[in-house]
Amino acid sequence: MKILNSKLPLKRCSAEALQRDGAVYGSTLQHFNASMSRYAFTLIELILVLALLVIITSLAAPAMSNFIRGQALDSEARRLLALIHAGQSRAVSEGLPMVLWVDEKKGTYGLQAEATGRNGDPKAENLVVDSSLQVAVVNSGSAGTTQFGGLPAIHFLPDGTVDENSPQTLRLTDAKGHTLWLIESRNRNGYEITDTQR
């Protein structure tokens, strides 16, 4: 077996050199630990931050729930208005009278052709009001309310206008009493959303 002789010089370390290097490494380690402790959180600080978050969340929760309820009322009014526009469009495009009926007790409303064939209206729509809301027909037309299946209904004529006996005002109310109204326009060509009754 052949042993290779290394021609690299061996550096002899004195005790002083080892002590000096150890002191440098030791002070570096102490400096690192000290700098890390400056950026760390104590348990008390973390508990205080969590307590502040709980307080802020508890203060913001009621405002957020009111905002969400308001959004439900607004989106339901817009959905009802969109169905009114769809009824007008279908009446004009198909040349047939359309009815948008409202069932206050069940909290439903829908749109369908006034005269349906043997299979009914394939494009009929039935919608359910959000559970936190109520829909109501407030005032009717001049000669009595148009009825469809025993329910008050908005009657759209083939030219897209609203029949004069159709309800003039619909009301949507949430659980806290906030109300939006859908009121017939003066020229009887549609409805608009408002937060006050005229």
Task: Record the SSE blueprint.
Elements: H1 15-39, H2 43-94, E1 98-103, E2 108-113, E3 125-128, E4 133-139, E5 147-148, E6 151-156, E7 169-174, E8 179-184, E9 191-194
Antiparallel strand pairs: 1-2, 1-6, 2-3, 4-7, 5-6, 7-8, 8-9
Explained architecture:
With 198 residues, the protein is of the alpha+beta class. The chain is 39% helix and 24% strand. The chain contains two helices and nine strands. Strands 3-2-1-6-5 form a five-stranded antiparallel β-sheet, with helices on one face. A four-stranded antiparallel β-sheet has the order 4-7-8-9, covered by helices on one side. The chain is elongated. The model has no long low-confidence stretch (mean pLDDT 79).
What would a concise description of this structure say?
The protein has 198 residues and is α+β, with helices and mostly antiparallel strands. The chain has helices at residues 15-39, 43-94; strands at residues 98-103, 108-113, 125-128, 133-139, 147-148, 151-156, 169-174, 179-184, 191-194.
